[in-house]
User: Fold this.
Amino acid sequence: MNKQKVLFGGTVIIAVSLVAAALVALVLLAIGASPLATYKTILTGPLSDLFGVTEVLVRSVPLLLVGLGIAISFRSGILNIGAEGQIQMGVLAATAMALALPGLPKGLLLPLVLLAGALGGAVWGGIAGWLRARLQVNEILSTVMLNYIAAQIHTFLLRGPMLDPNELETGSGTPQSMRLPDASFLDQIIPGTRLHTGLILALVAAVLVWVLLWKTTLGYRMRAAGAGAKAARYAGIPVERYLIVAMLLAGGFAGLAGAVEVTGVHHRAIEGISSGYGFAGIVVALFGGLHPAGIIPSAFFFGILLIGADMTQRSASVPANMVLVLQGVIILAIVSAQSFLRNPYAQERVLRWMARLVPAWLKSKKGAQS
Amino acid sequence: MTAAAEPISELKLEGITKRFPGVLACDGISLDVRRGEVLALVGENGAGKTTLMNIIMGLYRPDSGSISVNGEVVQFRAPGDAYARGIGMVHQHFMLVPNMTVAENLALGLKDLHHFMRLDIKGAAQKIREVSERYELPVNPDAYIWQLSVGEQQRVELVKTLCLGAKLLILDEPTSALTPQETDDLIERLQRMASELAIIFISHKLNEVKALSDRVSILRHGAVVFNGHTANHEPSELAALMTGHEVTLPRNEGSGLQGTPLLSVRQLRVRGDRGNFALDGLDLELRAGEVLGVAGVSGNGQREFADALAGLRPVESGEILFQGRNLANKTPREIIDSGMGYVPEDRQTEGIVPSFSVKDNLILKDFAAKKFSKLSFLARKSIDRNAEQLKEQFDIRCPSTSTATGALSGGNIQKVILAREIARGPKALVAVYPTRGIDMGAQEFIHSQLLERRREGIGIILISEELEEVMNLSDRIAVIYKGRILKVLSAVEATRERLGILMAGLADTDPPPAAGASSLPAAGAAHE
Assistant:
């Protein structure tokens, strides 16, 4: 019986993915591109050489870190849409820490910088968590609004107090911070590419999140608070406290992602450094089933999409923003598949409709099932 | 859609079969019901009653078999098709919008009232008045749904269904949320209506089946196992057919031994959700080794009382002394740790985390205890062992202890909760509506468990509106009315009539004739 259910669920998900792909194909047709060629470029282009693969991995790192934090918050019953702002606060905190202590040895400075990034994000996430727990402020509203505030702070600091003095001297005025001391850099894994040890850090984080959520009493409490707040309250779990903990952790992971981007890729704080990872991370987490084992491949897949979209822009003149369309359609597809699997009446209607269109096909399927 | 076709003289189902992935929900079911007749459809949870009715209403289509109305084979694709042939259903969970009036709720479903840019609410109200007069179902079309008691909402559902042109009514467990008085009242009204209509009455309460129906069909595992005239069979016989074995609900054969006082509640005042005092000076005393029944029409403070005992609702004044310690306004955790067990009212959302496995729900209160965790890591082995042991001991029927608890039947979910609470070795146990909506087999098990704990010396507060249950299990019965205990009767003194009168808030001098007991004052009290 369970096997059949899994089979049915799998069929639905594949069907929904095909529908999603077809919808995006329509958009591609509308802008005059060839869907097949575009899909081919997006999905195979990035993996055709070592450089492509390392770039995909570089993109996967922040996606994975943000996705893990999102999974913690969603599992605990709080919908964190604020990763974008939390990344930016992480970037600022990490940069400030690295620039403030330039003389420290690497073994000390790098951990401090990463920790500062995580704390910056945690504070920003914690605000939304506290507002929800103590004042019942809807976390979707507060996190979205905090994104705007973080963006303004980020812009203000990079154009004002944290602006690189060199930029003022040369007069180019690019809004960015000073270059970080070398002792704060994450090492490269493969020389000549941008792939850095942040990847290992993110993979270790994935294992830790899995342990936290499924192996510890803290994770048990958080999941209970998220999956059944009322029952958790009756069982003596102070649900509100764990909402705050969840948001601190979710913000911390996003902030860490920001710190990793600074120390691993850009080596200074620049504008647009979060480049949408905060929102893409939500899709990554949902696509990965809010479970680290799913989020790792999911982050890799979305890394491919991001690089692939860049490639189609160059080769097939399809705008790279098409990846946003893809992300949107994927979210719609996941959400519809989930609600479809929860609604027996809708399933009945679709099956009936299919039975009218393809009776022979259904018959053979039934034969195979029983 | 409303211009109901010719009145139904007969609805006939033949060989209805419906298969879901892995489940045979209906297995060749044949039934028929005629005008002027009440057919009771009886079966345990999961026997296929609801699926069958959804097939009649066109929500599902059968894999094989046919439905015919007045001898003509029909195929319904949606509930609208069923209504067009005069078949209507009142669902167990009411389908009403609380912040709309009765007339507006009807207008939702009546397409002829929807004119261009205008909704004919007056027409809806007029229609409601006609129908409610004709069938003697008093309903005020201008009342908002949230103002009505559950019994009144039930009448609104009936009137709504009749207004939509139904001549054959399917009632899915219509009494499950009603008080005893409201139930008696509904059954009386249905009896009067039955002469002009056909009614399919779904229930597993056999005394109601006995009181109302002409014929009874019993479903078990998706198949009809019995058809017969209700008058010729005793409820106990029907119960055995329904469950597949003899069922005797256990009774408290108490020796009247009185234990030491365990819990005393003094002058408890607690606010309800609307800010009024839902508990207004409640006094109660529980002794070790007794079952204290709290009977009352729902909405008289039971929910607030239970919440206050669990630490989930602030206490304005008064004390909850448990073994000499005041638990008023302590946190749920402190109350749990002091030895208080709790079986909450809404088992799906308050008793368990539905998506958690059975074994995880069994440690919901004790995951941090030494037994189940080491250095704040969960001790999976002892959690598994605990689950296997309790599954055995409490006869929890689940494919494995890793199954999501929400997928189990109501009875098994309740067993999970009871197992968890009892395994913690509580000194007192508060059970709120512990068998509401649960089939008889599980009910029997839960009752005998409660009585066994009583023998072990646990004090049990049983909050229930099922008079049978309260009277079967309790040593003493406290009647709650408007947030106070009106009177405490010993089990010997308590009769159905006397409790009914007390629950309606009438003074307990000498019992007036029973006729007055079951009418409207009780319904009025419920929403004050």
Notes: The mean pLDDT of chain A is 87.
